[in-house]
């Protein structure tokens, strides 16, 4: 058993899907699967239940995941303590950004930190909000800018602003505000059940008594935009996620109006979760 296997296993449990975990870890899926199988063989127990929608941890797998998080957290603390004693390292901060926010200011922020903050080494991780929140809980990310963060032990949340979501389509003649009820009847490309936009769309549908039409689920902003641009689906996305495509005229964005929660109900709090300890 080694640290890589523990890291791979905890990420797979968090993602609930080996393919998705491999993408998040930037490793090949067969390599990830092999590491988990080697863990199961060494421990002599199944750690994951594999099914059509992904994987879930067995009771033994849940125990291993809990203990592995403790080990990985302790290893990171030891590394920082040793580096601090040497007195030669810069303070390392890992920041999590959603894909849209990464496009808006990720590169500029890194340059500004390099130029204006001596002694600080900034590393940026770009992922969906729910992945970033999980990473903060595991202490893999120190601070994250994420949406729709619920109450979680050990996390402090600071609301920054509400961001309006856009209805996006490839039809350039499709302009002007659009009603929420009309959107819900069209085939949508969304990121999946854990994503904040998916949850907001489903909540809006329940309030209006309309079952949303989910044409595609893809935990990838790039894939969702491709589906929209080729005309296979429409979507509801933050402005930052589609800013370049809007500027190039590849996607049309429309404001959303109507519903029971206000004139523009599909807006979402923009929150910064961070560990409660220094």
Descriptive overview:
The chain is an alpha/beta fold. It folds into three domains: 3-85, Orthogonal Bundle (Arc Repressor Mutant, subunit A); 88-160 and 270-275, D-Maltodextrin-Binding Protein, domain 2, CATH 3.40.190; 161-268, D-Maltodextrin-Binding Protein, domain 2, CATH 3.40.190. It contains ten helices and 13 strands. Strands 3, 4, 5, 6, 10, 11 and 13 form a seven-stranded mixed β-sheet that branches. Strands 1-2 form a two-stranded antiparallel ribbon. Strands 7-12 form a two-stranded parallel sheet. The chain is globular and about 60 Å long. The two termini are 30 Å apart.
Q: Which key phrases capture this entry?
A:
globular; seven-stranded mixed β-sheet; D-Maltodextrin-Binding Protein, domain 2; disordered C terminus; alpha/beta; two-stranded antiparallel sheet; single chain
In N-to-C order, the SSE pattern is: HHHEEHEHEHEEEHEHEHEHEEE
Total number of distinct structural domains: 3
CATH class of the largest domain: Alpha Beta
CATH topology descriptor of the largest domain: D-Maltodextrin-Binding Protein, domain 2
Structural class: alpha/beta
DSSP helix fraction:
40-55%
Short description:
This protein has 278 residues and is an alpha/beta fold. The protein is 46% helix and 25% strand. The strands form 4 sheets. Strands 3, 4, 5, 6, 10, 11 and 13 form a 7-stranded mixed sheet that branches. It has a two-stranded antiparallel ribbon with strand order 1-2. Strands 7-12 form a two-stranded parallel ribbon.
Structural topology:
Blueprint: H1 3-15, H2 18-25, H3 29-43, E1 48-51, E2 54-57, H4 59-86, E3 91-97, H5 99-116, E4 120-126, H6 129-137, E5 143-147, E6 155-169, E7 178-179, H7 180-184, E8 188-190, H8 196-208, E9 214-217, H9 221-229, E10 235-238, H10 239-248, E11 252-254, E12 256-257, E13 267-275
Parallel strand pairs: 3-4, 3-5, 7-12, 8-9
Antiparallel strand pairs: 1-2, 5-13, 6-10, 6-11, 6-13
Helix pairs in contact: 1-2, 1-3, 1-4, 5-10
